[in-house]
Amino acid sequence: MRALRFHAEEDVRVEDVEEPVPAPGQVKLRNGYSGICGSDLHIYYEPEQAGVSLTEPHPVTGALPPQILGHEFAGEIVELGQGVAGWEVGDRAAVWPVYYCGRCMACRRGRYNACELIGFHGITSDGGGMAEFTTVDASMLHRLPESLDLKMGALVEPMSVAWHAVKLGGAEPGQTALIAGAGPIGIGVYLALRANGVDRIVVSELSPERRKGIESLGAEHVLDPTSDDLVARVKEVSGGLGAHLAFDAAGAGPVVQQALGALGATGILVVVALHAKGSDFNPTSLVMGEKSMLGSLAYMPQDFDDVITAMDEGRYDASGWVDVIGLDEVDDAIHRLREGEGMKILVESR
Ligand SMILES: [Zn+2]
Ligand SMILES: [Zn+2]
Questions:
Q1: Which of 115, 145, 260, 273 is 20 to 30 A from 58 in CA distance terms?
Q2: Which ligand is nearest to the CA of 118?
Q3: Cβ neighbours of 234 (radius 10 Å)
Q4: pLDDT tens for residues 88-104?
């Protein structure tokens, strides 16, 4: 089968590899689409920093590159391994792609998404979504209803990253929220907030293309942080209170300061972006007004179920911000995304 494999820094290749065979408890999926995201760029340019060792097998999965990429994907079951119950050939599913150690503090608390040895299917595992087929444990499958196609299925993962952040922040109807960054995760935060009853939302984004993208989904208060007064706008939209919640989906130091400044007293900033560089940060800005700052990583299985339900209810609109390419175009797409071009890119898996 054809597969897109990561070999080493700035080295991905479309290759012919052997089809996987489902072990007991696993299913074989024919993949439909697989998203490219910031994590893939991180792996491509700085694999060791992104948690992909070129020399040491992953401590949970034992995997080592060459690695089939694609951790945001959905497919159709074509074969059942021994002992798989509740699934049939022809069923379609999105995959919760997490491998966890079961022993660290997060795992003991049942918060597997925060495992200190976390691994992902399509990053540090045997197989991924950017190949015609892959095999995964049936326990990782989340059923797609009739209403959702496999493109929407591939968006369940990135939308769950955002959903998890929104839930972690404790979003409630009637609140005001600030979203910094309107890339795919910022869009996901916007749609998840709306689905959770938060409709007073201010979005801050540098790129005119991305501002337009989120406006076309219905965002009303979209501004350019270099020319507009963010704090003043949030005050105005919130009736003078400041934001209950802020989301850093941009990953730049100044954004954190701005977002904390836009929070009302007791507000919460949820950081859902990785920062390439640190920045000066004075914790006094948390003490005054008893504000909180939380990190949000990945998702739990429940987030997948919640997103699928919200998608089934029609709360997710993929028009205008999702492009589809072929396996041969992935290398090129990674370079374009790094230049800040484009929005969400899905790869057709065959
Ligand atoms: Zn991703
Ligand atoms: Zn763990």
A1: 273
A2: 2
A3: 28
A4: 999 999 999 999 999 99
